[in-house]
Amino acid sequence: MFKKVPHTYVIVFSIIVIAAIMSWIIPAGEFDRTTKTMADGKQKTVIVENSFHRVDAEPQTWQVVTSLYNGFVAQSHIIVFILLIGGAFWILNASKALDVGIMSFIHTTRKLEKYKLLRKIGIDNIVIILIMTLFSLFGAIFGMSEETIAFVIVLVPLAISMGYDSITGVCMVYVAAHLGFAGAILNPFTIGIAQGLSDLPVFSGWEYRIICWILINLVGFTFILLYARKVKKNPEKSYTFKIDEYWRKNKVGEDTVIEYSTPLSAWISFIIVLIVLVLFSAFYPDSLLKVGNSQFHFPALPVSTLIFAIISYFSLRKSVHFYILSLLGFTVVFLIIGVMGYDWYVMEIGALFFAMGIASGIAMNKSANEITKLFLEGAKDIFSAAFIVGLAGGIIIILTDGKIVDTIMYGMSVLLQDFSKEVSLSSMYVIQTMINLIIPSGSAKAALTMPIMAPFSDLIGIARQSTVLAFQFGDGFTNMITPASGVLIGALGMAKIPYSVWFKFIWKLILILFILGFIMILPTLYLNLNGF
User: Fold this and answer.
1) Structural domain boundaries, residue 510
2) Structural domain contains residue 274
3) What residues have CB less than 8 Å from 87, skipping those under 6 apart?
4) Which has the closest alpha carbon to 162: 56, 39, 282, 247?
5) Does 14 score more than 50 pLDDT?
6) Residue 115 DSSP symbol
7) Could you tell me the pTM of the whole model?
8) Residue 341: inside a domain, yes or no?
C-alpha cells in the first residue's frame, strides 16, 4: 500500500498542510515596503532595507481549506488560459490539420536522411535541437514561461509520432524555454527587474550571461537527447510508457487517412480573418518591438498580414488543413509580435488562441453549436490541468497569509554575514534556489530579495552583478521541479504526466544544473568581466 506513488493532487495538498504547520513554528515577521520607479518608467513594490520586524502570528488552520479557493482566485489567469487553449486546440484537432502537419513534417525530415552527414548525426536529433534552441532563445530573450503551455499540446503529439514519449515533448518546449529562462540574456522579468532594483544598468553583463546560456543549454540538451535516444531504442524504458497510451491511440501513422478538400466555409474564414488583420494593421501600422534593452520600429502587423494572405491563399488551394496550419503558424507569429511589441500576457494570448479555434471551426464548416460542443470537450479534457494549477496556488496563499515568507527570507540573509566571499555568494545562490521552491515568480522574488541582497553584497565586497547572477540561477533551475509553479503543473497537465513521474525524470537534471550554477557564479569573483 505504501509503495504506491501518491496522486499529484495528494502531493500538492500535502505541501499545503506542511506550509500551514510551518506557520505555527516559524515566527511571523514582515518587511516594510515602498514603491520604486524602474528604468522603464514602471513602478515596482520593493522592500525597505533594514525594515524587518516581528508581527502578530497568524497560524493557519482551517485556512488550509480556504486556501484552495484563494489559490484558484490567485491563479485564475493561468486557469482560464489553460481552458481556452484546451478548447481551441480541440477544435483545431477535429480538423485533422495537426495530423497533416505532423505527417508532412516527418515525411520531409525522412527525405533528409539521404545525406550521409545528417544521417550520421541523426535527423531526429537535429529536429529536437532546433526546436529546443528556438524555445530556449524565447526564454532567454523575453522570458517565455506561461506561453509554453500552449505549445505542449502540439509538441507532445509530435514527439510521440517521432517515436519518443510525452516527457520528450514537454522537454522540447517547456524545459527548453526554462533552460533559456535560467540562462537569461535579456529577460526583462528576471534580469531587467533584478538589475533595476540593484541600481545596475539594465541588461549589463550580458556577455558573460551568453556564455552561461550556452553552457546551460549544452548540459540540458545533452541530458534530454540521451533520454530521448534511450526511449527511442526501448520505448518501455520511458517513465510514461503506460501513460502515453492516451497519445499513442491518437498517433499519426502511415495508415492515417485524410480527405483533402477546401469547402467554401474555409474561404469565408480566410476573408473574415484577413479583414480583421487588415483593420488591426491600419490601427497599428508601426510596432515598437523590444528585445532586451534595445527597441526598434517595424511594420510588423502589416508585413505579417501580407505574408499571411499569400501563404493562406495558396494553402487553401491545396486543402483546408494547410490553411488551418497557416492559422496556427501565424497565431504564433502574432503572439511573438504581441509579447515583444505590446506587452501581451496570458489574457491576450489566450484570446488569440481562442480566436484561432473559432476561425478553424468556421473553416471546417462547423455550425456555432458544433464549435461550442468541440470547445467544451476540449476544456473538459484539460480541466484536470487547470484544477491542479489552482490547487498549487494554495501553497503560496498559506505561506503569505501565515506571514512567514519574510521571516524565512530574513533568517536566511542573516546567515550570510560572517562568511567569506565564496561562501556568501554560494549561500545567496542556495537561498534564492530554496525561495524559488515556494515563490516561483521571478519578478516577485526579485522584489523580495534584491533590495536586501544588493546592499549586503556591497558590505562583503561582492559585485552586485554577481548577486544578480546568483538570483538568476536560483530562480531559473528549480522552476522545472517546484510543484508551486502553476506553469509547470499546467504544462504537465496538458501532457497528462503526473507530477510524481515528472519528478523521477527531472531531479537528476536539476541536480546537475544546480552544481553547474555553482561553477558559473564563482568566476565572477576572480575575473575582470565586463559589467561585473
Assistant:
1) 97-257+403-532
2) no
3) 354, 357, 374, 375, 376, 377, 378, 379, 382
4) 247
5) yes
6) S
7) 0.71
8) no
